Amino acid sequence: MELTKGYFYHIYNRGNNSQQLFFKREDYLFFLKKMKEYLTPFVSIVAWCLMPNHFHFIVFVQKEIIEFEQSGHPTQSRVTTKTRTINQSIGILLASYSRTLQKHEGFTGPLFQKRTKAKVLVDEIVIEPSYWNTTFGTQINFSQGKSYLETCIMYVHYNPVYSGLVKSPEEWEFSSARDYLGLRKGKLIDYSLLVKENLLLVDSRHPTHSRVTTNICIIGIGSNIEAETNIPKMLEILKTKVEVLQVSTFLITKPIGNIDQADFTNGAVKIKTDLNQKKLNKLLKAIEGEMGRDRTNPKFSPRCIDLDIVVWNNEIVDEDYFTRSFLKKSVNELIR
Questions:
Q1: d(Cα 312, Cα 305) in Å, to the nearest integer?
Q2: Superfamily (CATH) of domain 215-334
Q3: What's the angle, vertex CA 312, arms to CA 309 and CA 313, rounded to 5?
Q4: 37 and 188 Cβ atoms separated by less than 8 Å
Q5: Distances (CA, A) of 23 to 20, 26, 37, 96, 157
Q6: Are the CB atoms for 54 and 12 separated by under 8 Å?
Q7: Dihedrals φ, ψ of 289, to 5°?
Q8: Backbone phi, psi, residue 70, to 5°
Q9: Contact predicate 184/175, CB 8 Å
Q10: Which candidate, 247, 191, 243, places its Cα nearest to that of 216?
Q11: Which of 112, 204, 213, 297 is positioned for an S-S bond with 157, CB 3.0–4.6 A?
Q12: Residue 125 has pLDDT above 60, yes or no
């Protein structure tokens, strides 16, 4: 495996004799921790996916070799400077994980296949069909205008779908698909490089779609006028404007400010939209108006529907989240 500075690579390996590599969630998380420790000094991680018996990294090589200081024997104060190559660091990553897993699972022998493979992702280089078939178990048909790099990223994210583990890439916790879709702010991938390469937020479920900025938002919902009718009606209207991802459990709460009115039904809805925050807020006000919200009434008056943006791309943007326990509970149900 030869890795050269300044190029994107697809790096992959699987369990020896296709044996299982990860047995529980903690195994995946431990491997991710080792990835950060041993890979990021050399590369920018562009995409990744950990499967039960194999893994995929897509990286951009920043350094081929690094220097590090190593202390001598505990009784000695001498510190020496040593070097390590990226290949050596990948080997240490796999060996370190193997030792830990062997200890926990009580088995011996090699865990990974002997050779970790790497393919350079350059459009001018023809990558033979056998590579795609062997690595992904399917023939890749390139979408018009997409590079080898983009195509590889999409199919790495799609691995859990091909294997029948999930129905869509973002359902699999142990890949960077959620980070690409704005559902999570992972700490492994290099977002600045993705922005520079115009790769961030490519929807891997729709490879032929053009790139758009996708925003994930959680909206607080409230009603104390025919809530059992108005909330479902509002959700149906909202579904025609944005993609509704998840709806929280609804809670019955006492009114705030003006207590001489009916109890409220409160909850939250998680959506995905191409609208920016200002345009989405304008849309929500239009939906409130369509449903008959009277804005001439005082602030804490009864209302048929109340919609407020609480979370915007994982950032709390409504201070009420911190002071209203029912809102916090509903929103937290949708944060993952």
A1: 20
A2: 7,8-Dihydro-6-hydroxymethylpterin-pyrophosphokinase HPPK (3.30.70.560)
A3: 155
A4: no
A5: 7, 8, 21, 16, 20
A6: yes
A7: -65, -40
A8: -130, 125
A9: no
A10: 243
A11: 204
A12: no
Number of C-beta neighbours around residue 89 at 10 A: 18
The CA distances from residue 138 to 213, 222, 329, in Å, are 29, 48, 43
Q: Where are the alpha helices (DSSP H) in the chain?
A: 25-38, 86-105, 129-136, 148-162, 177-180, 191-196, 227-239, 277-290, 320-323, 325-334
Tokens describing residue 34? 């080792």
Say which amino acid occupies 233. K
Residue 43 CA, distance from chain mean position: 19
Q: Nearest Cα to 43, choosing from 4, 2, 94, 92?
A: 4
Burial per residue of 219-255, b for 16 or more beta-carbon CB atoms within 10 angstroms, e otherwise:
bbbbbbbebeebbebbeeebeeebebeebbebbebeb
Q: Using a cut of 0.70, tell me whether the model's pTM lies above it.
A: no
What is the average pLDDT across 77-82?
71
The domain locations on the chain are: 8-196, 215-334
Q: Decide if pLDDT at 74 tops 70.
A: no
Choose among 187, 126, 135: nearest CA to 156.
Answer: 135
Equal fold, 8-196 vs 215-334: yes
What CATH superfamily classification does 8-196 receive? Transposase IS200-like (3.30.70.1290)
Residue closest to 272 by CA, chosen among 173, 222, 321, 203: 203
Instruction: Name residue 49's beta-bridge partners.
Output: 56, 175
In one-letter notation, the amino acid at residue 191 is: Y
DSSP-assigned beta bridge partners for residue 119: 10
Measured CA distances, 55 to 18, 20, 159, 187 (Å) = 12, 11, 10, 18
